[in-house]
Amino acid sequence: MSKETKEKVKKPLYKKIIDWFVGIIIVFLCAIVGIFAVATFTTNKNETYGLTFAFDHSFLIVLTDSMEPEYKVDSCIIIKKVNQEDVKIGDDLTFYYEPYQMVVTHRVVDIIIDESSPYYTFKLHGINTNSEQCKNANGYEDCTDQYQIITSDKVLGKVVANNYAFGQFLNFMLTPYGLIILLLIPGSYLIFTSARSLIKALKDDDEVKTSNSELSLDGLKAEDIERLKKDLLNEMLEDMENGKNKKTGS
User: Fold this and answer.
1) pLDDT, tens only, 48-69
2) What does each C-alpha distance from 217 to 203, 211, 214 come to in angstroms?
3) Could you write out the three-class secondary structure of the chain?
4) Which of 76, 74, 55 is nearest to 65 (CA)?
5) What is the pLDDT of residue 129?
6) Could you tell me the end-to-end alpha-carbon distance of the chain, in angstroms, rounded to an integer?
7) pLDDT at 180 > cutoff 80
8) Is 133 exposed, middle or buried (0-12, 13-18, 19+ CB in 10 A)?
């Protein structure tokens, strides 16, 4: 490959950046889709109260302010399944709370072990003393009732990570506009790059055919010249032979 060809093949920096960015988005989407597929087929939602788990992990979006400032509203928290023996005071557990029939995430403030029961009992409490959840019907805040007592069979997992920005991203991606953008940007780029590659391949093929045609034409011209030389030489030899014969016969 010539130096000029190498310079043509080398991509500009901005194109490399775009390719990397779109590639990361596509890999991210494929990973998310793969995780959801695995989770969908491996999770018994009757046992997890509607949550989907993949490799013992699940993620949720925080809906209330009971755990602020630790977990802001709309943050994404990742939980991991945990054995009751591994739970400690101060851990944040996600659990199903039957009186409210909803999934809640609060902090463990006490652990009760009853030898006659196979399950531990946990007392959990929200950490935000100014939470909207503490207000009673008259509008007065009373966070003393912001606690739950549950058995370990209701525990879904322990919080292992949280991120506010990722939660915002997920919330936006779940909107119609977000889904359109999520599918449109990489899809459009793939169509554009595929079309560009196809056009380039067709042009290169035409150039190769034209080059081969020129080479073949040059070859044919050279053969014609060689044939003409041989024909002229044969004619000259024949003329010389005929001249000798005439002299000998005279």
Assistant:
1) 787 888 888 888 999 999 999 9
2) 21, 10, 5
3) CCHHHHHHHCCCHHHHHHHHHHHHHHHHHHHHHHHHHHHHHHCCCCCCCCCCCECCEEEEECCCCCCCCCCCCCCEEEEECCCHHHCCCCCEEEEEECCCCEEEEEEEEEEECCCCCCCCEEEEECCCCCCHHHECCCCCECHHHCEEEEEHHHEEEEEEEEEHHHHHHHHHHCCHHHHHHHHHHHHHHHHHHHHHHHHHHHHHHHHHHHHHHHHHHHHHHHHHHHHHHHHHHHHHHHHHHHHHHHHHHC
4) 74
5) 84
6) 69
7) no
8) middle
Q: Scanning the structure block, which residue is given the tokens 């005279």?
A: 250
On the question of a cis peptide bond just before residue 69, with omega within 30 degrees of 0, the verdict is yes
Amino acid at 219: G
The token pair that represents 88 in the structure block: 């400690």
Distance CA 243, CA 234 (A): 14
Average pLDDT of the chain is 78
- The pLDDT, as a whole number, for residue 142 is 72
Closest CA to 76 of 93, 61, 96, 56: 61
Q: Which residues pair with 76 in a beta bridge?
A: 61, 163
C-alpha to C-alpha distance for 64 and 104, rounded to whole angstroms: 9
CA neighbor of 89 nearest in space, from 56, 121, 132: 121
CA–CA distance from 184 to each of 1, 187, 189 (Å)? 37, 5, 8
In this structure, are strands 57-61 and 121-125 parallel, antiparallel, or unpaired? unpaired
